[in-house]
Specification:
This protein is of the alpha+beta class. It has a single domain, classed as Class II aldolase/adducin N-terminal domain (L-fuculose-1-phosphate Aldolase), CATH 3.40.225.10. The longest helix has 21 residues. The two termini are 22 Å apart.
Amino acid sequence: MNDVREALTRCAWILADEGHESGLAGQLTARGSAAGTYWTLPLGLAFDEATEAAWLLIDDEMRVRAGDGFVAGSGTGRARVREPNPATRFHLWVYRARADVGAIVHTHPRAVSALAAARVPLVIGHMDATPLFDDLAFLPEWPGLPTADREGEIIAAALGGKHAIVLANHGMLTAGRSVAEATFLGVFMERMARLQLDAAAVGGVKAVDAAEAARARDFLRSDRIMDLTFDAWARKASARRKGIA
């Protein structure tokens, strides 16, 4: 995919189909080409409604630099919305701290949110969880609504050098080198959280062998595997929106 907005749109559709829709609390972002800028959806547009034109390029003062936004309302009350979600402000702190991060997924999907509400970390207990092996952080206490700088500092510090984090009493965040990687990790985080909740009924998740988990992670986190997986998910998401699947 040549344009980051195309990848972000597919990411939004994939996450909507996977049950990550979080209303105004879910945000997807990707770095812009200019320093201190990133792409994000306008306030009030759901993941399922994302279009390539709607994405807004904003700077580190939350000012809109590019993007069409979307038209909301009906009749004489219709108006174009080009306002970024203020909750994306905490993403700035991750981008500032991590030059390797090109895209961020932050959502409150049901299963991860259940673990977060219980303040329970995600266990790497299945092959499909191994992409997160030794790359998953846990913030044990909720720092509050992430619209201010302090929350951004706390979340960025808790993430450290890892690419995913469960946020207690909150949700999840994945920070990928690409949109595909951030999406890949986000989808499997929620699927594995769901599995962990299901496994509680039959004795609970048992952690896999560390050496084997590392070997599986290194294979599954290769760009080729992640890109092929993302493209397959994107094709299905696109087809569903065309009414042919």
